[in-house]
Design a protein that fits this description.
The chain has about 280 residues and is α+β, with helices and mostly antiparallel strands. It is built from eight helices and 13 strands.
Length: about 280
Protein backbone atom coordinates (compact mmCIF):
# COMPACT_ATOMS: atom_id res chain seq x y z
CA UNK A 1 0.00 0.00 0.00
CA UNK A 2 3.04 2.24 0.44
CA UNK A 3 3.10 3.37 -3.19
CA UNK A 4 -0.70 3.65 -3.57
CA UNK A 5 -3.50 5.79 -2.21
CA UNK A 6 -4.72 5.44 1.38
CA UNK A 7 -8.49 5.06 2.04
CA UNK A 8 -8.92 8.85 2.20
CA UNK A 9 -7.62 9.21 -1.35
CA UNK A 10 -4.48 11.11 -0.26
CA UNK A 11 -1.00 10.33 -1.46
CA UNK A 12 1.29 8.82 1.21
CA UNK A 13 3.63 11.26 2.94
CA UNK A 14 6.64 9.88 1.06
CA UNK A 15 5.28 11.53 -2.11
CA UNK A 16 4.94 14.98 -0.55
CA UNK A 17 7.94 15.13 1.79
CA UNK A 18 11.00 16.93 0.33
CA UNK A 19 13.85 14.52 -0.14
CA UNK A 20 16.76 13.50 -2.33
CA UNK A 21 17.06 14.20 -6.04
CA UNK A 22 17.71 10.48 -6.53
CA UNK A 23 14.73 8.54 -7.90
CA UNK A 24 16.31 5.28 -6.73
CA UNK A 25 16.40 6.55 -3.14
CA UNK A 26 12.78 7.69 -3.44
CA UNK A 27 11.77 4.28 -4.77
CA UNK A 28 13.58 2.56 -1.89
CA UNK A 29 11.20 4.41 0.46
CA UNK A 30 7.98 4.33 -1.60
CA UNK A 31 8.15 0.82 -3.08
CA UNK A 32 11.46 -0.94 -2.33
CA UNK A 33 10.19 -4.22 -3.76
CA UNK A 34 10.31 -2.66 -7.24
CA UNK A 35 14.09 -2.21 -7.17
CA UNK A 36 15.92 -4.92 -9.15
CA UNK A 37 18.23 -5.85 -6.27
CA UNK A 38 15.48 -6.07 -3.62
CA UNK A 39 13.48 -8.95 -5.07
CA UNK A 40 13.46 -12.34 -3.37
CA UNK A 41 15.11 -15.07 -5.40
CA UNK A 42 15.00 -18.84 -5.04
CA UNK A 43 17.99 -20.48 -3.41
CA UNK A 44 20.86 -21.51 -5.66
CA UNK A 45 22.27 -20.16 -8.90
CA UNK A 46 19.83 -19.03 -11.58
CA UNK A 47 22.16 -17.90 -14.34
CA UNK A 48 21.41 -20.70 -16.82
CA UNK A 49 17.64 -20.17 -16.65
CA UNK A 50 17.55 -16.71 -18.19
CA UNK A 51 18.75 -15.07 -21.43
CA UNK A 52 22.13 -13.36 -21.29
CA UNK A 53 23.27 -10.37 -23.32
CA UNK A 54 26.82 -10.48 -24.59
CA UNK A 55 29.28 -8.12 -26.30
CA UNK A 56 29.38 -4.32 -26.13
CA UNK A 57 32.22 -2.07 -27.38
CA UNK A 58 32.85 1.64 -26.93
CA UNK A 59 35.56 3.94 -28.23
CA UNK A 60 36.28 7.63 -28.20
CA UNK A 61 36.64 9.81 -31.29
CA UNK A 62 37.29 13.45 -32.05
CA UNK A 63 33.59 14.32 -31.83
CA UNK A 64 32.73 12.24 -28.74
CA UNK A 65 32.10 8.50 -28.29
CA UNK A 66 30.70 5.55 -30.24
CA UNK A 67 29.08 2.50 -28.61
CA UNK A 68 27.92 -0.65 -30.37
CA UNK A 69 26.44 -3.97 -29.33
CA UNK A 70 25.69 -7.24 -31.05
CA UNK A 71 22.09 -8.52 -31.16
CA UNK A 72 22.36 -12.07 -29.77
CA UNK A 73 21.14 -13.29 -26.38
CA UNK A 74 21.95 -16.81 -25.21
CA UNK A 75 20.45 -19.20 -22.67
CA UNK A 76 22.96 -21.93 -22.02
CA UNK A 77 23.76 -23.50 -25.38
CA UNK A 78 20.65 -22.02 -27.03
CA UNK A 79 20.16 -18.74 -28.88
CA UNK A 80 17.38 -17.06 -26.89
CA UNK A 81 17.10 -14.02 -29.19
CA UNK A 82 18.68 -12.90 -32.44
CA UNK A 83 17.65 -9.25 -32.28
CA UNK A 84 17.87 -8.10 -28.67
CA UNK A 85 18.96 -4.48 -28.16
CA UNK A 86 21.67 -3.84 -25.58
CA UNK A 87 22.77 -0.24 -26.26
CA UNK A 88 20.60 2.74 -25.26
CA UNK A 89 20.75 6.48 -24.75
CA UNK A 90 20.98 7.14 -21.00
CA UNK A 91 20.18 10.81 -21.61
CA UNK A 92 20.88 13.52 -24.17
CA UNK A 93 24.69 13.15 -23.99
CA UNK A 94 25.42 9.66 -22.68
CA UNK A 95 25.07 6.00 -23.67
CA UNK A 96 24.81 2.77 -21.72
CA UNK A 97 25.23 -0.82 -22.87
CA UNK A 98 24.53 -3.98 -20.88
CA UNK A 99 26.05 -7.45 -20.65
CA UNK A 100 24.88 -10.20 -18.34
CA UNK A 101 21.35 -11.22 -17.35
CA UNK A 102 19.25 -9.53 -20.00
CA UNK A 103 16.03 -8.95 -18.08
CA UNK A 104 17.76 -7.48 -15.04
CA UNK A 105 20.05 -5.40 -17.25
CA UNK A 106 17.21 -3.85 -19.26
CA UNK A 107 15.29 -3.07 -16.07
CA UNK A 108 18.36 -1.50 -14.48
CA UNK A 109 19.02 0.54 -17.62
CA UNK A 110 15.45 1.91 -17.63
CA UNK A 111 15.72 2.80 -13.96
CA UNK A 112 18.98 4.60 -14.70
CA UNK A 113 17.29 6.63 -17.45
CA UNK A 114 14.56 7.67 -14.99
CA UNK A 115 17.20 8.42 -12.36
CA UNK A 116 18.96 10.92 -14.63
CA UNK A 117 15.69 12.51 -15.79
CA UNK A 118 14.42 12.80 -12.21
CA UNK A 119 17.64 14.45 -11.03
CA UNK A 120 17.49 17.01 -13.83
CA UNK A 121 13.86 17.87 -13.04
CA UNK A 122 14.48 18.23 -9.30
CA UNK A 123 17.81 20.07 -9.48
CA UNK A 124 17.23 22.02 -12.69
CA UNK A 125 20.65 20.95 -13.96
CA UNK A 126 22.25 17.90 -15.53
CA UNK A 127 24.55 15.64 -13.53
CA UNK A 128 28.19 15.71 -14.55
CA UNK A 129 29.30 12.73 -16.63
CA UNK A 130 31.32 11.37 -13.73
CA UNK A 131 28.33 11.91 -11.44
CA UNK A 132 26.17 9.83 -13.81
CA UNK A 133 28.75 7.03 -13.71
CA UNK A 134 28.73 7.12 -9.90
CA UNK A 135 24.91 6.92 -9.83
CA UNK A 136 25.04 3.87 -12.09
CA UNK A 137 27.72 2.30 -9.87
CA UNK A 138 25.42 2.64 -6.84
CA UNK A 139 22.61 0.87 -8.70
CA UNK A 140 24.94 -1.99 -9.66
CA UNK A 141 26.08 -2.29 -6.04
CA UNK A 142 22.46 -2.63 -4.95
CA UNK A 143 22.15 -5.66 -7.25
CA UNK A 144 25.08 -7.48 -5.64
CA UNK A 145 22.88 -10.05 -3.87
CA UNK A 146 21.28 -11.14 -7.13
CA UNK A 147 24.66 -11.06 -8.87
CA UNK A 148 26.06 -13.55 -6.37
CA UNK A 149 23.25 -15.93 -7.38
CA UNK A 150 24.26 -15.65 -11.02
CA UNK A 151 22.03 -12.75 -12.10
CA UNK A 152 24.90 -10.36 -12.67
CA UNK A 153 24.73 -7.28 -14.90
CA UNK A 154 27.81 -5.40 -16.05
CA UNK A 155 27.14 -2.16 -17.94
CA UNK A 156 29.42 -0.03 -20.06
CA UNK A 157 28.82 3.71 -19.81
CA UNK A 158 30.11 6.42 -22.13
CA UNK A 159 29.23 9.94 -23.10
CA UNK A 160 30.16 13.40 -24.22
CA UNK A 161 31.39 15.52 -21.30
CA UNK A 162 29.74 18.91 -21.76
CA UNK A 163 32.01 20.32 -19.03
CA UNK A 164 35.23 19.39 -20.80
CA UNK A 165 37.54 22.29 -21.65
CA UNK A 166 38.59 20.67 -24.92
CA UNK A 167 35.66 19.34 -26.95
CA UNK A 168 38.00 17.11 -28.96
CA UNK A 169 38.75 15.16 -25.76
CA UNK A 170 35.23 15.21 -24.32
CA UNK A 171 34.44 11.56 -25.05
CA UNK A 172 34.78 9.44 -21.89
CA UNK A 173 34.19 5.75 -21.13
CA UNK A 174 33.49 4.09 -17.76
CA UNK A 175 33.51 0.39 -16.89
CA UNK A 176 32.20 -1.33 -13.74
CA UNK A 177 32.45 -4.51 -11.70
CA UNK A 178 29.60 -6.40 -10.02
CA UNK A 179 30.39 -4.77 -6.65
CA UNK A 180 29.82 -1.29 -8.07
CA UNK A 181 33.41 -0.32 -8.67
CA UNK A 182 33.69 2.31 -11.42
CA UNK A 183 36.77 2.80 -13.60
CA UNK A 184 37.45 5.30 -16.35
CA UNK A 185 38.90 3.72 -19.48
CA UNK A 186 41.19 5.38 -21.99
CA UNK A 187 40.38 5.23 -25.68
CA UNK A 188 38.25 2.11 -25.86
CA UNK A 189 36.77 -0.75 -23.88
CA UNK A 190 34.52 -3.80 -24.29
CA UNK A 191 32.40 -5.98 -22.00
CA UNK A 192 30.68 -9.35 -22.33
CA UNK A 193 31.74 -12.82 -23.40
CA UNK A 194 33.33 -11.60 -26.63
CA UNK A 195 35.14 -8.66 -25.03
CA UNK A 196 38.57 -10.34 -25.12
CA UNK A 197 38.42 -10.67 -28.90
CA UNK A 198 36.79 -7.26 -29.40
CA UNK A 199 39.46 -5.49 -27.36
CA UNK A 200 42.20 -7.38 -29.17
CA UNK A 201 40.76 -6.08 -32.44
CA UNK A 202 40.55 -2.51 -31.16
CA UNK A 203 44.04 -2.69 -29.68
CA UNK A 204 45.52 -3.15 -33.15
CA UNK A 205 43.40 -0.59 -34.99
CA UNK A 206 42.39 2.17 -32.58
CA UNK A 207 43.99 5.60 -32.99
CA UNK A 208 43.01 8.55 -30.81
CA UNK A 209 41.32 11.48 -32.54
CA UNK A 210 39.61 9.57 -35.33
CA UNK A 211 36.32 10.66 -36.85
CA UNK A 212 32.91 9.25 -35.97
CA UNK A 213 32.83 7.31 -39.24
CA UNK A 214 36.19 5.70 -38.50
CA UNK A 215 35.10 4.84 -34.95
CA UNK A 216 31.86 3.26 -36.20
CA UNK A 217 33.83 1.12 -38.66
CA UNK A 218 36.27 0.02 -35.93
CA UNK A 219 33.40 -0.84 -33.56
CA UNK A 220 31.73 -2.94 -36.26
CA UNK A 221 34.99 -4.76 -37.04
CA UNK A 222 35.54 -5.44 -33.33
CA UNK A 223 32.09 -7.02 -33.03
CA UNK A 224 32.74 -9.05 -36.19
CA UNK A 225 35.98 -10.37 -34.69
CA UNK A 226 34.21 -11.17 -31.40
CA UNK A 227 31.49 -13.11 -33.25
CA UNK A 228 34.19 -14.98 -35.19
CA UNK A 229 35.61 -16.49 -31.99
CA UNK A 230 32.80 -16.32 -29.41
CA UNK A 231 29.65 -18.39 -29.95
CA UNK A 232 27.57 -16.12 -27.68
CA UNK A 233 28.23 -13.06 -29.85
CA UNK A 234 26.11 -12.67 -32.97
CA UNK A 235 27.59 -11.26 -36.15
CA UNK A 236 25.70 -9.23 -38.79
CA UNK A 237 22.79 -11.28 -40.16
CA UNK A 238 22.43 -10.41 -43.85
CA UNK A 239 19.53 -12.81 -44.37
CA UNK A 240 17.32 -11.41 -41.59
CA UNK A 241 18.77 -7.88 -41.94
CA UNK A 242 19.73 -7.82 -38.25
CA UNK A 243 22.74 -5.59 -37.63
CA UNK A 244 24.52 -4.36 -34.47
CA UNK A 245 23.02 -1.40 -32.65
CA UNK A 246 25.40 1.55 -33.03
CA UNK A 247 24.99 4.84 -31.15
CA UNK A 248 27.05 8.02 -30.98
CA UNK A 249 27.19 10.82 -28.41
CA UNK A 250 28.63 14.18 -29.47
CA UNK A 251 28.17 17.86 -28.67
CA UNK A 252 24.97 17.68 -30.72
CA UNK A 253 23.54 14.95 -28.48
CA UNK A 254 23.14 11.19 -28.64
CA UNK A 255 21.67 9.37 -31.60
CA UNK A 256 21.29 5.87 -32.95
CA UNK A 257 22.43 4.98 -36.44
CA UNK A 258 19.56 3.82 -38.61
CA UNK A 259 19.38 0.18 -39.67
CA UNK A 260 20.36 1.32 -43.17
CA UNK A 261 23.45 3.14 -41.86
CA UNK A 262 24.65 0.31 -39.60
CA UNK A 263 23.79 -2.25 -42.31
CA UNK A 264 25.92 -0.41 -44.84
CA UNK A 265 28.92 -0.44 -42.49
CA UNK A 266 28.38 -4.12 -41.64
CA UNK A 267 28.20 -5.07 -45.30
CA UNK A 268 31.38 -3.11 -46.00
CA UNK A 269 33.16 -5.01 -43.21
CA UNK A 270 31.95 -8.34 -44.60
CA UNK A 271 33.13 -7.41 -48.11
CA UNK A 272 36.54 -6.54 -46.70
CA UNK A 273 36.76 -9.83 -44.79
CA UNK A 274 35.68 -11.75 -47.89
CA UNK A 275 38.74 -10.37 -49.67
CA UNK A 276 40.97 -10.79 -46.64
CA UNK A 277 39.51 -13.26 -44.09
CA UNK A 278 42.35 -12.65 -41.66
CA UNK A 279 41.44 -8.98 -41.19
Amino acid sequence: MAAGLDPSGRLPAVFTTPGSSSFTEFLSLAAPELLPGRRLLPAGASADLLPHATTIVALTCAEGVVMAGDRRATMGNLIASRDIEKVFAADAYSLVGIAGTAGVGIELMRLFQVELEHYEKIEGAMLSLHGKANRLATMIRNNLGAALQGLAVIPLFAGFDVDAEDASHAGRIFSFDIAGGVYEEKGYDAIGSGSLFAKSSLKKRFRAGGTVDVAVRLAMEALYDAADDDTATGGPDLIRKVFPVVMVATAEGSRRLTDEESGAVAEAVIRGRTENPGG
